[in-house]
């Protein structure tokens, strides 16, 4: 039996804070208005970082979400248990509050996708609090219903028939769905690039499916673009990339949980070759191990930062006068969609570096023509109309 200790109500003014023990990158936690760490949040975030090995950046995002939650608890003077019972009120506050923190969406109410993200952090924190004896079973019952999982045939854990289903989930907006970049959009972006660095960056995401964090962390030693790489100590045939899990201070490769090898096409090899010659003309780039480096400015020759990828792509969008904003992730989606049309889902899963097929399934956007063809193929032999017409005549 777990003994439940009552946790104190935090003081208003909660914020995310970086905790940095000596000799360690540390983790992000939540402090209240009195600069006291909030125990439930701190226990959970420490567990994420040190027991689950999650990236620093992940704990930062979760800590930001939990700071919003604990500030609400503080203002309403609610302990953990009482807060769980009044989660509806928290959701309402999230829906009505205008975002004041600097960043995306400032000055606007949060979207449903954003709210769901905050609620996920809160629920996971409660599960951890339950395991650590900070709340009782009633808190979990207030947040979850026990439900039976529908067997979609794609879950890797079919034996797990029962699951906790969250009670508070908002319907995600249509615009929250990622639409893969269209061929015309990609060509337009390529058409306005000024250097091979940008071309290679786009191609690494669109033709090799790299996440933006993986693209900027790609080292020259990861690029095996020769027909035969045995001289480099690699037995894989054909041009390929090694996408290795690397941890930076920002935790930018956080999502790839294991290494993978991605075969690449001629377009990727071509762009990489051209960029290689351009890169050699940047003297300061000699000291950088990464493939992608800055081509100008005070950081010339230094590695491209992960947040720069977004600004590079959005600048290209502006120059290409695209009707909608294309994000790096939409490039990866387009790659996955294209592959899904020609390869089995488990092949796509390994190429994308996913752990679960269910995640891969979310990336697969069937093209309209394929849906059209499927209907035509399925009903090619159907004589229902003749039968119906016959029945009419009788
Ligand atoms: Zn290799």
Description of the structure:
- The protein is built from 16 helices and 7 strands.
- It has 394 residues and is mainly alpha-helical.
- It folds into 2 domains: 15-175, no CATH class; 183-366, Orthogonal Bundle (hpI Integrase, Chain A).
- Strand 1 (15-19) and strand 2 form a beta hairpin.
- Helix 2 packs across helix 5 (112-131) and helix 5 (112-131) runs antiparallel to helix 6.
Structural class: mainly alpha
Estimated helix fraction: 40-55%
CATH architecture of the largest domain: Orthogonal Bundle
Ligand inventory? zinc ion
Annotation, overall tally of beta strands = 7
Please mark out the parts with pLDDT under 50 across 5 or more consecutive residues, or reply none. 249-254
Reported by name, the CATH topology of the largest domain is: hpI Integrase, Chain A
Give the SSE order as H and E letters: EEHHHHHHEEHHHEEEHHHHHHH
Superfamily (CATH H level) name of the largest domain: Intergrase catalytic core
Query: Shape, please?
Result: globular
Q: What would CATH call the class of the largest domain?
A: Mainly Alpha
Distance between the termini: 73 Å
């Amino acid at each position: 039996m777990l003994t439940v200790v009552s946790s104190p109500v935090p003081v208003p003014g909660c914020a995310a804070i970086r905790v940095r023990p000596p000799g360690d990158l540390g983790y992000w936690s939540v402090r209240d208005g009195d600069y006291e760490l909030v125990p439930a949040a701190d226990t959970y975030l420490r567990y994420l970082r040190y027991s689950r090995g999650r990236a620093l950046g992940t704990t930062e995002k979760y800590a930001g979400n939990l700071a919003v939650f604990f500030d609400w608890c503080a203002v309403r003077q609610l302990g953990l248990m009482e807060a769980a019972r009044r989660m509806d009120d928290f959701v309402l506050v999230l829906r009505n509050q205008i975002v004041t923190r600097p960043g995306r969406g400032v000055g606007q109410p949060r979207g449903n996708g954003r709210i769901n993200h905050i609620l996920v952090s809160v629920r996971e924190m409660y599960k951890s609090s339950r395991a650590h004896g900070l709340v009782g079973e009633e808190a979990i019952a207030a947040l979850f219903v026990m439900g039976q999982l529908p067997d979609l045939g794609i879950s890797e854990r079919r034996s797990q028939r029962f699951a906790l289903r969250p009670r508070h989930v908002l319907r995600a907006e249509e615009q929250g769905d990622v639409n893969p970049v269209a061929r015309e959009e990609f060509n337009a972006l390529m058409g306005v690039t000024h250097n091979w660095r940008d071309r290679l960056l786009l191609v690494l995401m669109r033709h090799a499916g790299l996440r933006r964090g993986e693209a900027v962390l790609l080292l020259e030693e990861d690029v095996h673009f020769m027909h035969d790489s045995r001289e480099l100590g690699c037995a894989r045939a054909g041009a390929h990339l090694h996408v290795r899990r690397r941890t930076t201070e920002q935790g930018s490769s956080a999502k790839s949980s294991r290494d993978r090898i991605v075969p690449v096409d001629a377009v990727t090899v071509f762009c990489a070759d051209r960029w290689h010659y351009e890169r050699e003309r940047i003297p300061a780039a000699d000291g950088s191990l990464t493939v992608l480096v800055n081509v100008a400015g005070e950081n010339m020759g230094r590695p491209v930062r992960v947040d720069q990828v977004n600004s590079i792509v959005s600048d290209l969008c502006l120059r290409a006068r695209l009707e909608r904003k294309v994000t790096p992730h939409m490039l990866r989606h387009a790659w996955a969609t294209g592959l899904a049309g020609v390869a089995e889902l488990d092949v796509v899963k390994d190429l994308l570096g996913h752990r679960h097929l269910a995640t891969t399934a979310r990336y697969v956007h069937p093209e309209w023509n394929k849906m059209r063809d499927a209907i035509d193929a399925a009903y090619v032999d159907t004589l229902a109309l003749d039968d119906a017409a016959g029945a009419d005549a009788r």
